[in-house]
């Protein structure tokens, strides 16, 4: 057995449970009762559902700890093990209870234990407030990767920020998004353990100066003006059906105890208290922007705070185990999840130079062999660059180090490209176009030994465009690692019906080896299997329908096609193209109420950045269209439009299993990869999509005939834009489009206000930066083909089964294996627990 001996102790004739480690039902029951009593201070009879949730979670955490502590004792001491450190400003973990039960393989035992104690297990699972410590794809990817690292037995720590307030909760009032503060910690978080004894100090502000050391060598040092304490909170990250367990270490900022005594002593009580509040502000809140960089000082503080805490932590462990500073890279492979932790490059240099007293050359060699960097975007507005003044005031020593890195690097560039002055300014870590900035992507590129994009097209475009000069400089640093998703959370946990059906037919090892799904291919032509597959889908749709009814009062028909677009609301993701299609169908019905229309339920789900006007207006538009269509007599329920509030991981797990059609309709060349597209297809939804991000690879895997493709390619997009693109021409020549746009501005959707949605239509007619109108005719004809295909349910189901069978490539295990082999050069460590 790979797990801890769970049989307990034999004492006389009675078999006793180990209430901390036992895994059978009886032990679990005892453990829950014990935690109810000693942690929650109640008997089962008096326990609230939250008491039960906490007791169940503590019981489970006990079991995880055994694995986690043993794993790290073993790997830190073993000189030959290189650990992965995944640095990310976001981890969108999702609820922990269900996922941990699946990993430990005791989901059914726990369900029985809880039920026999007289509680509703479903309610217990629902009680968990998920930690929404991320915005979207990037944060969720980090969590999928943590799951795969653990499941593949790769020793790893995820490092990030323990935001007190994660991504806001979304409510819809009168069709508009309203943001509500997320308070995920309000009822306690049973999964984390604070480790104040491992706190570190992080310094800010002040100035740098020259000094001479004992032997008269002239050096520089930082005289900071204030200090903040970072306290680590650890959450276990269990692997699926293996013994080893990693952890996620998130940093909380606090004021140091001896904080600013001088202010106190000088009677400046107010300043002392304000400074304390400022320190604690660092980890207060997650910035809710996706794909848009905002140059806020607090954000830079967050980035430096968690980078510095994490590096100090790793260095401490390394030195405690007799490692030499110059061998740091042999113990740690650090992955920079986007540029948010890129300041780490300069921070590791500072630690090696100023604290470990290494010379520049050695320090730089060590640094460059430590880091690798993942880019997640092609949008220029997402690239981080910090105003030089702001940077200098906050991190003067770091800036000095960046200048030195830059100086030496540009000397190398000059040697390589003596004729080319422009390349110097493009590769420089400092931008000097009017105002000056520190370019974080350039810092990440120069300080890393590997740079990767997150899908084939994305990597290609990175190399061709925004990182092209870096390819000239370091051609061997570039890799593509296509993203992946964890099948444990996104199938086993969230789609138990499909999981059981798969397991019944091909065995139970597919969640670890997702390519085994290939064995399902023959079943795509097996009537009996397809019938069961259809039943699973319809049941999932029924569950979602009843949630929709409960939460927003709209009745939807589970046998209609569930056409779903869930993702952050963004112009490049083109939720409004979807709306144009809905209104096209609506106007077709209005002009001919008896027209044959395949029943469809359009479901939207997603948050808009609070400051993103167009995205918020799009939400209002979707809701207005819903109001109209859902209540129009002529429509006769053939189409329904639902905007479901508050997209998060918990809700996401409901929706992927229930979708028939997945909308992946971004403008080609804009979506780096997408991962929602993978979650849908793996759960048997067909995709309507452009040749963008990972759609391209999904289509190659599932077969061109099982994917609804439309739209301009990335190179056509550029060509169209260069050739004086005129959206008005399309508008004037396409009758359906013309009618739809006029309809939006007719005031019917907006209580007579003809101007409400004008910012959207004007943007389309006079510019259309995301080429909606260019793609509209292609999208509509493709949607007509989708509807035609839907009529033939047997064919649809064959296509859906083939999608599931051929999605093996997109397991995050494959991505992590790629990182291990090609970038990190690390191997699994097989832990045995007796
Ligand atoms: C996403 N980026 C990409 N950024 O848009 C998506 O295509 C990709 O699949 C995913 O990363 C994973 O590689 C993304 O989610 C953010 O949310 C950032 C948060 C911090 C501010 C800047 C955007």
TrEMBL record:
Top-tier EC class: transferase
Molecular function GO terms recorded: glycogen phosphorylase activity; pyridoxal phosphate binding
Cofactor: pyridoxal 5'-phosphate
Keyword check for Transferase: yes
Main function: Phosphorylase is an important allosteric enzyme in carbohydrate metabolism. Enzymes from different sources differ in their regulatory mechanisms and in their natural substrates. However, all known phosphorylases share catalytic and structural properties.
Family: Belongs to the glycogen phosphorylase family.
The protein's name: Alpha-1,4 glucan phosphorylase
The organism of origin for this protein: Plebeiibacterium sediminum
Taxonomic path: Bacteria, Pseudomonadati, Bacteroidota, Bacteroidia, Marinilabiliales
């Amino acid at each position: 057995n790979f797990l801890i001996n769970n049989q307990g102790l034999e004492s006389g004739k009675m078999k006793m449970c180990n209430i901390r480690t036992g895994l059978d039902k009886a032990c679990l029951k005892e453990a829950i009762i014990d935690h109810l009593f000693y942690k929650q201070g109640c008997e089962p009879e008096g326990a609230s559902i939250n008491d039960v949730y906490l007791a169940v979670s503590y019981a489970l955490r006990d079991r995880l700890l055994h694995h986690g502590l043993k794993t790290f004792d073993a790997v830190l001491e073993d000189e030959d093990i290189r650990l992965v450190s995944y640095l990310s400003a976001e981890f969108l973990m999702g609820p922990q209870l269900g996922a941990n039960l699946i990993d430990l393989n005791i989901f059914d035992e726990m369900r029985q234990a809880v039920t026999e104690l007289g509680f509703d297990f479903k309610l217990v699972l629902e009680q968990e407030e998920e930690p929404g410590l991320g915005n979207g794809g990037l944060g969720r990817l980090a969590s999928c990767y943590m799951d795969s690292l653990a499941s593949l037995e790769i020793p790893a720590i995820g490092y990030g920020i323990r935001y007190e307030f994660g991504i806001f909760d979304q409510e819809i009032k009168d069709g508009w998004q309203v943001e509500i503060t997320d308070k995920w910690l309000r009822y306690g978080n049973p999964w984390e353990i604070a480790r104040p004894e491992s706190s570190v100090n992080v310094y800010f502000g002040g100035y740098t100066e020259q000094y001479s050391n004992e032997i008269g060598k002239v050096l520089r040092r930082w005289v900071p003006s204030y200090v903040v304490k970072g306290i680590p909170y650890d959450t276990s990250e269990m692997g699926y059906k293996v013994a080893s367990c990693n952890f996620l270490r998130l940093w909380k900022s606090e004021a140091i105890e001896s904080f600013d005594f001088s202010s106190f002593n000088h009677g400046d009580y107010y300043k002392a208290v304000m400074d304390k509040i400022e320190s604690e502000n660092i980890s207060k809140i997650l910035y809710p922007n996706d794909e848009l960089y905002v140059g806020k000082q607090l954000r830079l503080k967050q980035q430096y705070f968690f980078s510095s805490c994490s590096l100090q932590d790793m260095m401490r462990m390394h030195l405690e185990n007799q490692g030499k500073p110059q061998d740091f890279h042999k113990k740690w492979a650090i992955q920079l999840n986007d540029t948010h932790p890129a300041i780490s490059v300069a921070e590791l240099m500072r630690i090696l130079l100023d604290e470990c007293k290494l010379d520049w050359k050695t320090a730089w060699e060590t640094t460059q062999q430590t880091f690798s960097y993942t880019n997640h975007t092609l949008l220029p507005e997402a690239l981080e660059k910090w105003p030089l003044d702001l940077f200098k005031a906050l991190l003067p020593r770091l800036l000095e180090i960046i200048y030195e890195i830059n100086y030496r690097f540009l000397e190398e560039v000059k040697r390589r490209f003596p004729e080319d002055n422009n390349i110097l300014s493009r590769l420089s870590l400092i931008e000097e176009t009017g105002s000056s900035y520190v370019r974080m992507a350039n810092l990440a590129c120069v300080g890393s030994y590997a740079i990767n994009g997150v899908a084939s097209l994305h990597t290609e475009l990175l190399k061709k465009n925004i990182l092209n000069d870096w390819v000239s400089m370091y051609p061997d640093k570039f890799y593509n690692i296509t993203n992946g998703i964890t099948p444990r959370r996104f199938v086993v946990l969230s789609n138990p019906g499909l999981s059981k059906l798969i397991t019944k037919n091909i065995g139970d090892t597919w969640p670890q080896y997702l390519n085994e799904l290939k064995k399902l291919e023959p079943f795509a032509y097996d009537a009996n299997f397809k019938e069961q597959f259809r039943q699973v889908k319809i049941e999932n749709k029924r569950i979602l329908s009843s949630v929709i009814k409960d939460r927003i009062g709209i009745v939807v028909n589970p046998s209609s096609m569930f056409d779903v677009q869930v993702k952050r609301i963004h112009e490049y993701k083109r939720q409004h193209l979807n709306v144009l299609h809905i209104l096209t169908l609506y106007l077709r019905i209005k002009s001919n109420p008896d027209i044959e229309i395949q029943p469809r339920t359009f479901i939207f789900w997603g948050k808009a950045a609070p400051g993103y006007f167009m995205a918020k207006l799009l939400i209002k538009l979707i809701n207005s269209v819903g109001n109209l269509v859902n209540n129009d007599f002529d429509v006769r329920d053939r189409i329904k439009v639902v905007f479901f509030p508050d997209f998060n991981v918990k809700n996401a797990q409901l929706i992927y299993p229930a979708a028939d059609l997945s909308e992946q309709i971004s403008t080609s060349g804009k979506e780096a990869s997408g991962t929602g597209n993978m979650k849908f297809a793996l759960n048997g939804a067909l995709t309507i999509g452009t040749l963008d991000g990972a759609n391209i690879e999904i289509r190659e895997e599932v077969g061109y005939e099982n994917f609804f493709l439309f739209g301009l390619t990335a190179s056509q997009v550029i060509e169209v834009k260069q050739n004086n693109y005129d959206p008005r021409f399309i508008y004037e020549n396409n009758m359906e489009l013309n009618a739809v746009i006029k309809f939006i501005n007719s005031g019917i959707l907006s209580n007579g206000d003809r101007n409400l949605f004008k910012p959207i239509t004007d943007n389309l007619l006079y510019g259309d930066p995301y080429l909606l109108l260019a793609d509209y005719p292609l999208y509509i004809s493709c949607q007509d083909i989708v509807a035609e295909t839907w009529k033939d349910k047997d064919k649809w189901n064959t296509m859906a089964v083939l999608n599931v069978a051929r999605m093996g490539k997109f397991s995050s295990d494959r991505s992590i294996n790629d990182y291990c082999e090609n970038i990190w050069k690390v191997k699994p460590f097989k832990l045995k627990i007796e």
